[in-house]
Design goal:
With about 290 residues, the protein is an alpha/beta fold. It folds into two domains: about 230 residues, TIM Barrel, CATH 3.20.20.70; about 55 residues, Alpha-Beta Plaits, CATH 3.30.70. The chain has ten helices and twelve strands. Strand 1 and strand 2 form a beta hairpin. Bound molecules: iron/sulfur cluster (2 copies). One iron/sulfur cluster binds next to helix 2.
């Protein structure tokens, strides 16, 4: 399993205090993704020019001349990189970092078990990403956690593998599933997703859910902040039996530097950040059509 980060003492990824495991790779391509480092299924090298001290050590050890440090600047030629790790290991400033570490389910469990004392009655592990439900070893990891008395939760885009999604829903105490847009054409254009497949996956997870779950709906002003989207959310919500409600997540534009550090274009845009009035309007409308907003 390719893991980008294990974040301890998380309080925003499910009930109680949790250890959030971020998996690398997602089949969708949302331009608003605030974790762009988890989009690619490959290990990536992150370079942060803001903390580079221009010492030239990376240039000296790179076998492919990927780093050019001269005249007070540092150019990184990403396409030439063979991911040998020489520069990462020698950089004194921490400006270079590999994203993505191969871990077995047993290795992840070991990390999670070291936090068990902090979980209390509600906490545990949350699988997130990226899209965790395309990692083929997720069922094994969840079974290991279950056997060890660790409560499991996951966060999914809805675009997981249907078999893994079904199994995960049946083994977890809680989960969050996204609804990104109710307009099929817009959804396809902005994320690459097929709305009927996402909806089918939500219903499948609802059918096999061990416990309850919540929908998360990201709101981008001028992109999906309209009644067509809200009506779709309402229709899906009312068709489910185990969903406790819909959480509205306002888009934020704070991920631009993360994009640039891994060689992606900065797609962040402040124009899409919804103000308090837009959020309230969405909440009022959703409630008016029978949606529980949490
Ligand atoms: S990982 Fe290796 S090939 Fe890539 S930039 Fe660093 S030293 Fe060069
Ligand atoms: S080794 Fe690190 S600090 Fe030195 S030039 Fe390379 S990236 Fe910058």
């Amino acid at each position: 399993m390719l893991v980008t980060k294990i974040q301890r003492f998380s309080t925003h990824d499910g009930p109680g205090i949790r250890t959030a495991v971020f998996f690398k790779g997602c089949p969708l391509s949302c331009f608003w993704c605030h974790n762009p480092e988890n989009k690619s299924f490959d290990r990536e090298l992150s370079f942060d020019p803001k903390i580079c001290v221009m010492c030239g050590a990376c240039e000296a050890v790179c076998p492919n001349a990927c780093h050019i440090v001269k005249n007070g600047g540092h150019e990184y030629l990403r396409s030439l990189c063979i991911k040998c790790g020489n520069c990462v290991n020698i950089c004194p400033a921490g400006a270079l970092e590999f994203l993505g570490k191969e871990m077995t389910p047993a290795e992840i469990l070991k990390e999670v078990l070291s936090d068990k004392a902090f979980y209390g009655n509600e906490g545990g592990i949350t699988l997130t990403g990226g899209e965790p439900l395309v990692q083929k070893d997720v069922p094994q990891l969840l079974e290991l956690c279950d056997e060890s008395g660790i409560s499991c939760c996951f966060e999914t885009s809805g675009a997981g593998d249907p078999d893994i999604s079904k199994t995960a829903a049946s083994l977890c105490d809680f989960f969050f599933v996204d609804i990104k847009d109710g307009n099929p054409d817009r959804l396809l254009k902005n994320t690459g997703a097929d709305i009927s497949q996402l909806d089918a996956n939500i219903r499948l997870m609802d059918k096999y859910a061990r416990n309850k779950f919540a929908i998360r709906a990201i709101l981008l002003k001028g992109v999906n902040s309209d009644k067509e989207n809200y009506d779709h959310i309402g229709g899906v919500f009312k068709s489910l039996k185990n969903c406790i409600g819909v959480e509205l997540l306002p888009y934020h534009a704070l991920y631009g530097n993360k994009c640039l550090r891994i060689g992606l274009s900065d797609t962040s845009c402040k124009d899409f950040v919804p103000d308090a009035d837009a959020l309230k309007e969405a909440e009022v409308y959703l409630k008016s059509i029978g949606v529980v907003v949490i």
